[in-house]
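Homework help board

Subject: predicted structure for assignment chain

Our instructor gave us this sequence and asked us to write out the predicted structure in token form, then describe one feature. I got the tokens but I'm not sure how to describe them. Can anyone check?
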Amino acid sequence: MFTKEEAYNQISSLVERFTEQLPSYKKSDYNETQTRLDFINPFFKALGWDVDNSQGNAQAYREVIHEDKVKIGGATKAPDYSFRLPGGKRLFFVEAKKPSVLVKEDVAPAYQVRRYGWNAKLPISLITDFEEFAVYDCTKKPNQNDKASKSRIKYLTYQQYLNEFDFIWDTFSKSSVLKGSFDKFVVSDTNKKGTATVDKEFLASLDEWRIMLAQNIALRNQQLNEDELNFVVQQTLDRIIFLRIAEDRSVEPYGELKKITTVGKEEGSYFQSLFHLFKEADSKYNSGLFDFKKDTLSKNITIDNKVIKTIVTQLYYPDCPYEFSVLGVEILGSAYEQFLGKQIKLSAGHKAVIEEKPEVRKAGGVYYTPQYIVDYIVENTVGKLLKGIEQKMGSKALSFGEGLGEAAKLKIVDPACGSGSFLIGAYSYLLNWHLEYYKPQFIELSEKAADNNSLRRDREDAIKQRNKLPLTPDANLTTHLKKQILLNNIYGVDIDTQAVEVTKLSLLLKCMEGETGSSINAVMRFGERVLPTLDDNIKSGNSLIDMDFYDTEFDFGENRKIKPFSWKNGFPKVFKEGGFDIVIGNPPYVFGRDWKSLGIGDEMKTYLGSHYKSSPYQLDFFSIFMEKGIDLVKESGFTSFIVPNVWLTNTYSSSTRKFILANSSELKIAVPEHKVFEGITVDTMVYILKKGKAKTKSFIISKLTNLEESLISELDFKEYTSGEKPISTSLSKGGISLIEKIENNTIPLSDIADITRGVHPYRTGGFGKSAFSNGQQIQKDVDERPYHSKLPKSGYRPFVYGKDLKCFTKIEPTEYILYGKWLAEPRDEKFFEGDRIYSRKILGQTLIVTIEKENTIADQQVYITKPRDKSTSIYYLSAILGSKLISFFIRNYFDEVNDAFPQIKVGQLKSLPIKIESEKKQAEIIKLVLQLLKFNSEKQQTHTPDKLNQLEARIKYTDDKINQLVFDLYGLSEEERGIVENIL
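My token output:
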């Protein structure tokens, strides 16, 4: 690898040579291949890239992939170069041109490279003919009518290379890329706001094609019911997309689908021609996707030519923005996951409409698991077991293949597989592991075969041994091995039949990655079909309800699609061996409180309640899946889900905590640093559980940032096995000890004070009497608020909202209320008289508290605390409640308050730990609180900047002193004070 100075000299030499012979290079007969060999390859070699694969890496591990270009209809079928990190992750594409092409002005190359980069979800890609060097932002959707300058973020000519060498080296040299400079350039020079990502655009296309097919098939095929219509539309769409992807990957001849729209004119003939392609695919692939023994509907349906032609045309260049040769299966899965959130319904007149599924509507959408979460779970489950196999067998044994036999026995399942993202992740990991296993042997034997100094017999023997490896000549896994891995290792279940079909499609496409027309033909010459049938691996059914459901007398109604599923009958070989080795996934986030709104009756709750013991009384689906995962996995096997974090801390989830800890020989809880699913309020966590009795003293809490992980704490198993104690995911062990110290020798607030929330003035069906009718409040009461006034009136009292509260500041209400039994929930009047503490439900940095002595009425967003005994001063009590120490306790004892709008519940307020001291010891704190109230009162009346600054300084000083006295009160050390200060 060149140093920066050596690289500069190399590129300087290239620039000099290009300058000297520029006229000859600009001639049209100086072609692209010559340009690549003479200039582009040496340019990137100078930047440290192994352009020629001099290291002899297998195809999957090459730093630079060179693609053979296939010109079809003016479109190039693969990018010229793909630059990648070790391990195969793509960084950017480079499109090469000959110098006679005007890179700066030519629209086609710009559209081409942006199209590739956008489809592969790469942030940038390049075009160069050495004379010019253009960098494009690939986060924005390309359009064939865009100017060449659209989304171009850097443009250089060869004459600028030396002056701009720092930029070229710092951004695109291999050494700089590995140090993260490429990532910094991407962040600073691309603007992703408002961009149309390829998965979202593909989803929009899927939705459009689905509605076209659904409406037309419903119109022309009146005999189909809703289920049949959904099935036919899904199958037709999946088959078209599969064949179109096969074309772009050179497995099928390019343009075969398009040909069907150029022959035959009679109505419906296009679909008949399409169906003929499907039948041919069945004989070639044997994948189940084209199984017409199972699908007896499709052959008899009618679809208008116009619909077929529109869909097919939109799948081809230049109308199509998608380039399926680089569009990853994971990206397709992301689009399909959203696609599965809707279903086709038949309205009156047999017209098809698309509706969100009820559970999706309730959740506010479908949320695809980010790839880094999938990778993390797979690495910590599949990766761990494979590493265990390596250690168990040893390098000598592995060289003879025993380790591969052990790997073939691994059974991995996702019991709520959706579009198959976790199964794709597991399958990809297994493929890479096998390739990595064979790579050293392949390289070693290739070197022996190429060694002309060795005996001919030794070289021939090396070739024979290499040919026995399950690798193709370009060092990819053979089709046969990829199929065996898929059939041996990967399993899934989902209640949604469409999801099952999409999972199969995604896995088959992954299996087909890297195949070519020649490799397909080679397989078929041996009488073997290209793809496996996955019907025995991926099944549709209800993962939580077994066949004994039929023993009950529950009437779920004919519209309830319970779909009981027997795991032991569904996967008999797996359970003969004791169950699965790995259970992974992202189960549905359905809480028990949502059951009725989703149309799930009490009968279901009765069934699940009698079969699952670890879930709380509400029977949240995800907690039942957590128990099911442990039930399905072998002893010493791994279970890992991403689920809502509420089970860690909620009081009602103690049974879940107890069950998880009781069945863990090892346990790791990882908390994503950033919100995983934008658009939903629930926070999530990942757990990695090894089934068995605890073998270690502690379990681990870690923070997860992408794939980087950092330790938060190690917690003792014994302290948590009862399930009663909440599990903090934010505190170190020292922080947890501090929480325990704060609780020590204290009493709950409710022991010394009466506490309630403020009034609920208006609510239909409330207890109050309506101002507009003789009965209870009605909607008109809620809309017109008849008991409120903006101005003071006789009999009306000041009304306090949560937003009116400021810490230790006199309340200044802006509304008035006629208080009485006519309000929806009026509360006991004692809470609105005499000395009391008002605190706000929504938290600030601390609990927002102040003293109230006036006869105001508080809203439901305000909590009222009234000491029962006059010996407990409200000034002393408010100082504790408004302190940093209590805020620290609230945020770390009750994890669920840490949402976007953190709130404290009235029950949590009642349980806050209060340290009671003698009146003499309370006196200093009381004095400071009175000063704080005085300073804040003066601040309300002050308008000059200088005086305000002085008052704010005194307020902060006094507040700090109060906090220090509260720390003293609870006996905190300097280190413990630092923990509180650093977290807040």
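Reply (TA_rk): Your tokens look well-formed. For the description, you could write something like this. The first helix runs from residue 4 to 20. That's the kind of observation they're looking for.
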